[in-house]
TrEMBL record:
Family: Belongs to the LysR transcriptional regulatory family.
Protein name, per record: Pca operon transcription factor PcaQ
Entry GO MF terms: DNA binding; DNA-binding transcription factor activity
Originating species: Jiella endophytica
GO CC field: cytosol
Record-annotated HTH lysR-type domain positions: 7-64
One BP annotation, GO: 3,4-dihydroxybenzoate catabolic process
Gene: pcaQ
């Protein structure tokens, strides 16, 4: 439910102060405004909520049952806002914010650059350290506190202890080759058996999915299979050989769109897996981290993933 736009912070502050002092007059003195201004603000709040929050009598002001319920939320909201402002002020006074973000290669190539550009526009005071690597390594760094956020594949159950995951989109595996490769345009998956495979190694998040795909397709193990998670090696090696690269589609999306690599028209839908945000489950993200998360989400939406 969307919050009524008529309700402003001044309404909450006035309501909480009147409840604390049990008096419109004393609240007006504390807030350095007139009593009619306090009464007008309270009336606006009650109108917006459609409920009577306070009873006024000769002895002062008392909360109605609805007012008591609303007071708990109004007080906690103002306290959280105050803490957030103080936290940012203290951090900036100490020399600026810096967040460490872990990203799988597919995300680092496709999502993180645009999200970083947006962060530079909306929050230039927040510095970002981008760390890439295998999913297991990134999740262990997150759990230890070395990283503030990981953007990548959902981890194995044993690696997710104490962590929370929020899905952004699903990503599949791509089979790519160099332009001019003999398999360009080939839809026969069995033809892969005749070529060397560049395969994700055991630390890669897509390793199990890739293994399951090859087994399901009845593709025999190549005699000379190169295993790596290095995208720079994969790109360089494909330029020199007829190898087929098994890689997350996000890693090579730009290469394929620019014609540097060619994706084979072989269906890999069964390799779809969730990609999202992984955080420690020990509390709410900081205001700065929330900005990063929103920048990532907007980037994903803009790219249509």
């Amino acid at each position: 439910m969307e919050i009524d736009r008529r309700i402003k912070i001044r309404h909450l502050r006035t309501f909480v102060e009147v409840a604390r002092t049990a008096s419109v007059g004393r609240a007006a003195e504390v807030m350095h405004v007139s009593q009619p201004a306090v009464s007008k603000t309270l009336a606006e709040l009650e109108t917006a909520l459609g409920a009577r929050l306070m009873d006024r009598n000769r002895s002062g002001v008392s909360l109605t049952p609805v007012g008591q319920m609303f007071h708990a939320y109004a007080s906690s909201s103002l306290a959280a806002l105050r803490q957030g402002i103080e936290g940012i002020t203290e951090t900036l006074a100490a020399g600026g914010l810096r967040l460490s973000i872990g990203a799988l290669p597919s995300v680092a190539a496709r999502i993180v650059p645009d999200a970083t550009v947006e962060m530079g526009r909306v929050a230039p005071e927040v510095g970002l350290a981008i760390v890439t690597g295998p999913n297991g390594y990134l999740l262990s760094e997150l759990a230890s506190g070395a990283l503030d956020l990981v953007i990548g594949r959902l981890g194995n159950p044993e690696a997710m202890s104490g962590l929370s995951f929020s899905q952004l989109y699903s990503e599949r595996i791509s089979l790519v080759v160099r332009p001019g490769h003999p398999l360009v345009g080939c839809t026969d998956v069995a033809a892969l058996s005749d070529y060397q495979i560049v395969f994700p190694n055991r630390d890669a998040a897509i390793r199990t999915l890739a293994e399951q795909f090859f087994i399901a397709q009845g593709i025999r193990q190549a005699g000379h299979r190169v295993e790596t998670v290095s995208e720079s090696f994969g790109r360089a090696y494909l330029r020199k050989t007829d190898a087929v690269w098994v890689i997350s589609s996000g890693v090579v999306a730009l290469d394929v769109s620019e014609g540097m690599l060619v994706e084979l028209p072989i269906a890999t839908r069964e390799t779809l897996g969730p990609v999202g945000l992984t955080m420690r489950g020990d509390g709410d993200p900081s205001p700065a981290l929330r900005l990063v998360i929103e920048a990532v989400r907007r980037t994903v939406t803009r790219l249509g993933l």
